[in-house]
Specification:
It is built from nine helices and twelve strands. With about 325 residues, it is of the alpha+beta class. A hairpin with a 2-residue loop joins strand 11 and strand 12.
């Protein structure tokens, strides 16, 4: 299946090719104009060939001039026959297939070698290059992998790649049995199995004497236990959100004269809070961080803008209020 990079158009689909605005990548090579001033939003794209109001954005990864898509910014992609989008070359699709195969093999080894995690692991792209030195070159396949929903994370030591979250990994039968046994032993270590056995014995005796009352009592016990587990997990998430949010505020207040890329703040927090656990970093990125973003988007002390950095749109935050008296204090949730 080819990866499709069709742009999101604001006009209805017709048989006539749209008129593309001159691409930012073709006009400038950075997020600054020729006189050094920073460019944001629509000012970063110049339209010179399209009638006013008729131009549409250049396709993702494309180079547009004179109203037409004339090339693709990466040699991994080529202009489609109808001239409306950039499609990966056969070589690019083959390379992504190689990456998928390696990641499937490594994911099975990772998940079967230890207690399985809720999120699939990510691996350094440099390790992929080492595994297939003749196939995988420099880090140039970001757009292709993102379009296929691969997980991509950036840290100080480079790019990390993982399988899509909805990817159905086919684990061997032995691996599934081994993981089930580990989970059973983990439950036994907390005493839950002993408690269940005791409750079962008590319920069996009571069931013979008072069948209806015993059944209602057992259901009540299980209901209370489930509610307590949900409450414990909710408190844990709230505590992690409060801590990550406080880290974000402190980072913004350290240098209020500068704007900070949101993804950079997230990665810095993840590495600070969980330097040795990829699983915990993934949980922060995909379960905790969305709550932090929602909270800060409602905070008028933080200016939220979009900037073009290295040809990509990035959300940035900047602290605009007076320094907070609570700086450095993490909210405690009892």
């Amino acid at each position: 299946t080819l990866i499709d990079f069709a742009p999101i158009l604001t006009t209805t689909t017709t048989d006539v090719a749209p008129c593309f605005l001159n691409s930012h990548l073709h006009m400038l090579t950075s997020s600054q104009s020729e006189d050094g001033e920073e460019i944001e939003g629509e000012e970063a794209v110049e339209a010179v060939a399209c009638p006013e109001g008729d131009g549409v954005a250049c396709p993702v990864g494309g180079v547009c001039e004179g109203g037409k898509l004339i090339a693709c910014s990466s040699s991994n992609f080529e202009v489609s026959e109808d001239g409306t989008r950039c499609l990966p070359t056969k070589s690019t699709n083959d390379t992504i297939g190689v990456i998928r195969g390696i990641l499937e093999e490594w994911t099975i080894e990772d998940q079967c070698g230890s207690a399985p995690s809720e999120t699939l692991p990510v691996f350094p792209y440099a390790d992929l290059q080492t595994a297939k030195p003749g196939v995988l070159g420099e880090w140039t396949l970001e757009r292709g992998l993102l379009d296929e929903d691969f997980v991509i994370e950036y840290f100080d030591d480079g790019a990390f790649v993982g399988l899509p979250e909805n990817h159905g990994v086919q684990y061997p039968v032995g691996c599934r049995l081994s993981n089930a046994l580990k989970q059973l032993m983990a439950f036994a270590g907390t005493g839950i199995i002993s408690m269940i056995i005791a409750i079962a014995k008590f319920s069996l005796v009571g069931l013979q004497a008072y069948p209806l009352g015993s059944l209602i009592g057992l259901i009540a016990v299980l209901f209370v236990y489930r509610r307590q587990e949900q409450h414990r997990k909710r408190k844990s998430v709230m505590r992690a959100v409060a801590e990550a949010r406080q880290f974000s505020y402190e980072r913004l207040m350290e240098d209020p004269s500068q704007s900070h890329v949101v993804l950079h703040i997230r990665d810095e927090i993840a590495m600070t809070m969980h330097p040795n656990s990829r699983k915990s970093r993934n949980e922060l990125n995909y379960q905790i961080w969305p709550h932090v973003v929602t909270d800060i988007k409602c905070d008028n002390r933080v200016r939220k803008t979009i900037k073009i950095l290295e040809g990509k749109q990035r959300e940035v935050w900047q602290w605009i209020a007076a320094p907070s008296a609570n700086k450095g204090k993490v909210v405690k949730i009892e």
